[in-house]
Amino acid sequence: MEGLVLVFDLDSTLIDSSDxxxxxxxxxxxxxxxxxxxxxxxxxxxxxxxxIQLRKSGKxxxxxxxxxxxxxxxxxxxxxxxxxxxxxxxxxxxxxMMLRQDPMRDSxxxxxxxxxxxxxxxxxxxxxxxxxxxxxxxxxxxxxxxxIKNELKYAGYPSNYIQIxxxxxxxxxxxxxxxxxxxxxxPDLTNYNPILMALTxxxxxxxxxxxxxxxxxxxxSI
Length: 222
Ligand SMILES: [Mg+2]
Known about the structure:
alpha/beta, Rossmann fold, five-stranded parallel beta sheet, two-stranded antiparallel sheet, 7 strands, binds magnesium ion
């Protein structure tokens, strides 16, 4: 059996990037202090740290970033900061980082969709197996609107989408009140139990076909 594939969103998940000026700041000291106070250390300590260890044994096949951020220098700085924070500078934290402008995505879109197909494309590119992909994939994202959330649900693995949850709701036109995700200095209230269990247990394959009502309900709400 192949190992788990962990997919991390960046903004409002791994880090609170709401102070956008730092994404284009070229002064490393300023960027560093911004990352230091904005990184979601709960997620990094609780999930990323053991995942990097478990990658050595093959229990975790790949650790990926899938983000619609496009500031590659900023994203590189964050990966470097996390590696230093975790004391693993000799290896890459992420096996692949797929940004908005990645040639495998549709660059015409400001917010290209996040799909299981993107994960498959990445794994093929880095030479990792893609079978039983939904069963093995865990996605960490503050947004509840990505296609991959429903794809995992329809495949029978709804709890493989880990919704990053902070204490703050914001109003979004057309959506009502939605959770703001991770915010710097605020507690991360995410339920990490499904991934914590997956990191200690064997992967369970249990394919499931959605009912027609479930299927159409989500198609209509998208
Ligand atoms: Mg996000």
